[in-house]
Amino acid sequence: MVTLGIFDAFTPQNVQYLLGGLGVTVGVSVISVILSFIAGSIIGIVQFERIPYFSTFVGTINNIIRNLPLLLIIFFVYFALPKLGIHLPIFWATVVAMSTFESSMLAEIVRGGLESIDKGQFEGARANGLTNIQTMVYIVLPQAYKKMIPPIISQLISLVKDTSLAMGIVLSEMTYRGQIVYAQNSTYIIPVLIAITLVYFLLNYGLSLIAKWFDRRLA
Amino acid sequence: MSLLQNNFPTFLQGFGYTLLSSIIALIISMILGTFFAILQILPQKWAQKIGNVYVQVFRNIPLLIITFFFFLVVAKVIPMNGFAAGTIALSLYTSAFIAETVRAGILSVDNGQMEGARANGLSFGQSMRYIILPQAFKIALPSLGNQFINLVKNSSILAFVGGLDLMYQGNMVAATTFDTFTTYIVVAIFYLVITLPLSYYMQNLERRLKHAA
Fold first, then answer.
1. What is the ipTM of this complex?
2. Where are the domains of chain A?
3. Where are the alpha helices (DSSP H) in chain A?
4. What sequence ranges are listed for the domain ABC transmembrane type-1 (chain A) (predicted)?
5. Quick one: which of A78, B73, B112, B122 has the most CB atoms within 10 Å?
6. Contacting residues of A for B69, CB less than 8 Å apart
7. Does B154 touch chain A (CB under 8 A)?
């Protein structure tokens, strides 16, 4: 039995426990990417439209959030917001922190995407009698989003990796559960770390291949 | 405000360690990143493979796992503290992103530059060092700057392994004063002192380069 040491860590219970953690990791990532896609689009459009004062204000807040460590935002949401009377359970605190951080990243991508659209598209649509909002929704955004698919997938990869930071507030995701498993026995450390690394790698490498495929198709 | 006054030396020490870790990691990751970028564009297939695998592996796994690997596994063989483990992990992780940036920079330098340098009798290494890389770095400068900003932010990972950085000290102050709100705001301001001016500078630089092109 001693020779089989490497696999000792992977009892059915431990494997099931770790896979449950993967579920939490994927859950947080998917919910956060959807929320930050919506919020990031709105912030990006506001910045692009150059509404006096308001756009500058939103842009400044966005820059501040973008330049803070995600870990700090996670701690702030979970440990500091309760001082203001906002109590969130761990899972939702993580989702809120990650969505806030990622939407500031996505806002930059959306703004960049919008700026890359030819001015003639706006003028043509307006000349054809579309309103400002119709121009945005039917003409400009579809073209901009197409260009944004690869960078958005890169952001999703960051999200999946960054959920591991939530173990700082004891969210029971995969990295945290890995720590629980190898706390049982110090010989488990290497096999468990390798197994977790492999799962993250396969997940993210798969996503990066999808991004590459889109990149090639859109080029 | 009294919280800031009472704990100022602690915050300052954390700020110093964050800056130190970021600068060490920047230097190491620039060297490693450039090395693996060049591997990826060499004509030899095996060199390209090695460069590619290195970049894909470090780009697709969480920084935290790399940090734990050094702190829990490597530290058993080569003794190191949390600061060292975190800084090494940070260097390896960032070098993958820098390799991508530098590779893109090298590829955007016109082919004629290399051919001209080789035709004038420079070796491949010399052409790379004196002709191609200086131009590639200039093109890559804005994204390298953004990588440095990410590096400073990611150095907060040191808090997980007792790295004495700003985030770690912030957690300590929050735990002793119970004033989490003010503490984390102060920590945020310390981070912004480094990242915000850099970020605005890089945005400007990007705009200027775009107009120049």
1. 0.91
2. 2-218
3. 5-8, 12-49, 54-66, 70-75, 90-115, 119-127, 132-134, 141-162, 174-183, 189-218
4. 22-211
5. A78
6. 193, 197
7. yes
